[in-house]
């Protein structure tokens, strides 16, 4: 198990590192959406360093989407792991623009 880290690369670009799983996501993670606040109208989350993801990770990402939508910010996911694409497909989120394979750049 690898802990979840959010690394700021620039004010509007973050790297998500570690596991996005039940074991690594806690109440503090859910309350710490402050990294999504800022003056930028677009935020990029690079998922290349995500080593494992489960339904809790997918749920967290959906919460990030809702949060940024409510704050009128567009969120972009880069380097979406195959494991996440499969979870999104199983959950019916594969048709959502944030999880379709066209955003996997």
Describe the structure in your own words:
With 105 residues, the chain is an alpha/beta fold. It has one domain: 2-Layer Sandwich (Transcription Regulator spoIIAA), CATH 3.30.750.24. It has three helices and four strands. Strands 1-2-3-4 form a four-stranded mixed sheet, covered by helices on one side. It is globular and about 35 Å long. The mean pLDDT is 84.
Main features:
4 strands, Transcription Regulator spoIIAA, 30% helix, four-stranded mixed beta sheet, globular, 105 residues
Secondary structure blueprint with pairings:
Blueprint: E1 5-10, E2 13-20, H1 27-31, E3 42-53, H2 55-70, E4 74-78, H3 82-91
Parallel strand pairs: 2-3, 3-4
Antiparallel strand pairs: 1-2
Order of helices and strands: EEHEHEH
Oligomeric organization of the protein chains? single chain
Proportion of β residues? 25-35%
Major sheet summary line: 4 strands, mixed
Q: How far do the termini sit from each other?
A: 26 Å
**Which whole number gives the mean pLDDT?**
84
In total, how many domains does the architecture comprise?
1
Quick structural gist:
With 105 residues, the chain is an alpha/beta fold. Helix content is 30%, strand content 30%. The protein has helices at residues 27-31, 55-70, 82-91; strands at residues 5-10, 13-20, 42-53, 74-78.
